[in-house]
Amino acid sequence: MNIISINRSFLGGFLFKLTQIADELLRLFKVKKSLTQTEITKSFPNAELKDIKYALRRLREKGVIKRLPNLKDMRRVYYQVATRDEFIKSSNILTNEEISFFQEILGDLFDNW
User: Fold this and answer.
1) Closest C-alpha to 11, from 98, 85, 74, 91
2) Element containing residue 31 per DSSP (H, E)
3) CB of 37 closer than 8 Å to CB of 60
4) Domain tally for the chain?
5) How many CB atoms lie within 10 A of CB 10?
């Protein structure tokens, strides 16, 4: 696997990591609010598709990003960062440390988050 894990935070004695792709993906969402998987893949020409899919799945499982249907083409979906309320609603599966970790990252990247 060619994804390099990078440290993002050390909270309450717990070390949390994001893959490099996941970290760059969140930065990409800062530039463009809504993206399809094809647009994301084109933004990372050196990354493997499986690594991009893994990052999308992990961020979606944690409630950090959400999938929206593409009403013009139902075969495709848009991804975008969840709002603060949506994140809090979906955070019942996360530990307090994970919640703090993702809130810190999203707060750093998005001023109004």
Assistant:
1) 98
2) helix 20-31
3) no
4) 1
5) 11
